[in-house]
Amino acid sequence: MDLGKxxxxxxxxxxxxxxxxxxxxxxxxxxxxxxxYEANKQKFAYSCGLFVPEIFDVTQIDGKQxxxxxxxxxxxxxxxxxxxRQEAEYYMKLSIEIQQKIxxxxxxxxxxxxxxxxxxxxxxxxxxxxxxxxxxxxxxxxMAYEKRLCHGDFHLFNLIMLDNKVAxxxxxxxxxxxxxxxxxxxxxxxxxxxxxxxxxxxxxYCEKSDLSKEEIFQWAPIIAxxxxxxxxxxxxxxxxxxxxxxxxPLQ
Length: 251
Known about the structure:
Elements: E1 8-9, E2 13-18, E3 21-26, H1 34-47, E4 55-61, E5 64-70, E6 75-76, H2 77-83, H3 88-103, H4 114-124, H5 130-142, E7 148-150, E8 159-162, E9 165-168, E10 175-177, H6 179-191, H7 195-207, H8 213-216, H9 220-227, H10 234-247
Antiparallel strand pairs: 1-2, 2-3, 3-5, 4-5, 6-8, 7-10, 8-9
């Protein structure tokens, strides 16, 4: 099947635009259930009334796992913001309003529990020794929270603006968990390329909620430890280890 040239490539899949649909072709090394696992997460978000690309089919194309979904034609808020930096606060507020719509949704049941996902990531982090892993998992087990829908990779480049609506894409990391963890994850992602943007995001989210920076940063070492399981640079690994050492020092 000739899908033409890909429009994007990620760590787990290649994205094509074909007949006004998005086709996501998964890499061979992934588990055979990966496409269905991801599609079910996106279907759940769609069923909650969020503006999310509709899943049309989970299939195989040329022997590879594939998801066929709705194509949302538009620009990411990230691209729009960086062309209009003077309006950064406006677009950041818009993104936070969308994230808060996600966070009000109760998600106890249909999605993977956040705690299990984070525990698995911490166990896989190559930079962490057994003492660090044990300390982080102990802290994770001590956290009490109401299970809400968390995107897991929420940032401006996963939001596509179409007319006056904004679609939320890339739900593979979503889980049922603590919104404070989801907020810190977003803050951490922004901080990797702009502390100014990260601090703006954190300030605005706290202003628009009843959460404090201190409450959100309770999750800092756990999310930093889980982030180490991803393919991050050596410089970022050092920064993440510094976060862990500062907020969760070994006894």
